Each structure stands twice: as C-alpha cells, then as structure tokens.
Amino acid sequence: MKKYTSPLILLTIALLLACHTNKTIADAPHPVDSLPSKRLLFIGQDLNSINGYLQQCGDCPQPDGYIAYISMGYLTQKDFYGGLGYCKNGKHHTANVDWGAGPLNAYSLLAEHPGSHLQIGLYMVKQARKLAEGELDKDIKHLSKFFREFPSSTFYLRIGYEFDGEWNDYYPGEFVKAYRYLVDGLRKRKVTNVKYVWHACASPIDDIIEGYKEDLMPYYPGDEYVDWLAISWFLPPQVGPVGSSQKELSDELVAIARLKNKPLMIAESANQGYSNSDLTKRNITEILDGKAGRDRLSKSADQIWAEWYAPLFAWMEENGDVVKAFSYINANWDSQQMWGPPYKQGYWGDSRIEANEELKKRWKEEFSKPFWKEGR
Questions:
Q1: Cis peptide before 342 (omega within 30 of 0)
Q2: Global pTM value
C-alpha cells in the first residue's frame, strides 16, 4: 500500500522491482542452519480484505499473521493515530483510518486475533529527517507502547518500505540514520518482540525513471539493524527489460540474503492486472502495456494460475533456503477509491482468492505441499 504519493508515482509503484548487486553477492553460498525453519503466511492489507479471506475462503490455510500500515509523524494524532488505532494514556482507540485503500487499524487486528503476528509497513516519506533528528520521539514512544501491549505477538516492521523507489525520494544517508534511530529508540524502550525488515522495491520502472540501476548497499543500515530482507512481487516473473525482470531483480535480493545469512520475505504481492472475480486481464498502465483498464482479455482460472501464481510459488520453492515468509494482498482493488476507476493509479484488478472456486482450490492445494506443511 502506498499513501501520500502523486498519481504518476502511484502508477509505477509495484509494477516491477529493482536492485543492484555484484559478483561477490551473486556468488554467495547458501546460508547455514541459523535461519527460521517455519515458513510464514501473511494476509492483508486492509481490514475488509483480511476479513473476506477469513470468512469467505472456507478451509483456506489459516494465516500466521496479517498486514497493516502506519505513518510515521502521525502516530499521536488522535483523529486516526496514523493507522495504529491506539490511544494515549493507556486508553484504546478502535476507530479505523481509510486513505482510500480500505480501512486500517493495527490495534483492532491484534485485539481480534490475539497472538497473531503483524507485518507492518512503516511509511516515513518526508519524515526521515525529522525522525533522525529526534523530532518524532513522541511517535517512537507511542509505537513502543503499542508493541509492548502485545507481548505474545511478533511484529515485522518494514521501516521505510520500498526505500529504493524513486517515488519515496529517500537519500541513502538520511534513510540509514532514520532507520537506525528508530531501531535504537525502540530497543532503548525495551521493545523485544519486533523483527526489523529492510524492504527493497526492486523496480525496473525505478531504473527507467532514474536512468540507471542503483546500488542498494548504501541504504543498508548494518547487519545489527536488519533481521529480515524483503521484496515486493506483483507481475509475472519474466516481465521487464532484459536483466531487470521481476524474477531477475528478486534473485538479486535472494543473493544478498544468502550473503548476509538472513531470511527474506515477500512483503507485498498480488496478481496485478488480473481479476479473479470475472477471470480477465487488463492493461496495467501506459508505462508498461497500454492505457490502464483497457484491452480486456478473458482468462481461465487455469491461465491466471499458470501465468502468475505458479511461477511465483516455484520461485519461492527454488529459493526456499532463504525465503521464509509470503505476504498476499487479498483485495478487490477495483472497489477501492485509490485503485478503482478511472485508474489514475493504474489498473490493479481483483486478487481475492475466494472470488473464484478453481483458484481457491489451487491455493489450498499449494499450501498442502510439503514445502509449506513442513515449514509451517
């Protein structure tokens, strides 16, 4: 989910994903046995989408956790608490916030699903400098109280998610300072149930906009500040310029994860451009394939599965030594103000698993495989 960004930026978000590596990283050996053995499933990204999966997907695999989004610099504002849904002075606030992409409320998610994990996208665009210079210490204090409120849950905090995306406009030095300052601030406040996630967008569109393939490592805050690496995955693996396809750029993050001996999560994913409810595929954006929402093609459930789901799951299994979590956005994007007609942010479609019986069947079959059962 992206918030507070321009239409052009949102149009390109999550289409394809980019990062830079070198021969040393690419040749890194597989890690030793220190990575998590359990493979996690997260469902998101708004309350309606999560509830739809839980209530309408029948005996689909139960998530280990859920996805939420919060905004740094707004966590103490009592009108919506930046998506945190948590009040000051020990009083709980259950009102939701909706930025146009469905209702959000991190507190109510955990109150309704006690003991579940929560994967949080922490938005800090235009707030990184303030954070690094101590101007948002009240937000850090507020966030630490929230984490301590749920000691039986593990939080996966994606600090400044998709940090390398041109649309987020983070400078490496400023980003690293802000990231470290937040982690240090939470640790100082005795927060022990948070895993800190370094989430690269890895977008070829980012490379096209900037005109080069950037080096991710200047954004790296240090091994002691990173528990997990992460990517986003929205398109079929082969889509993108030569050398910058979804798969190739995701492979680069896998190589870094192996070099660093850290687990990798797919932090955001959905079959963008497809509609599971009416079995179609449409153009995503003129930047990629044509005017958004146009050129409607009928697709069978088998075709949708073969074109998007099957290759992604195959890639996960191929890299199962480091890929330890999968996060799926189970949303009817077309019904949400931010993503729906007239598709100013591109066409996203309907990625709900429960929207089609055949896709639901395939989904359940996938999670019955040893790769998932042995890792869950």
A1: yes
A2: 0.89
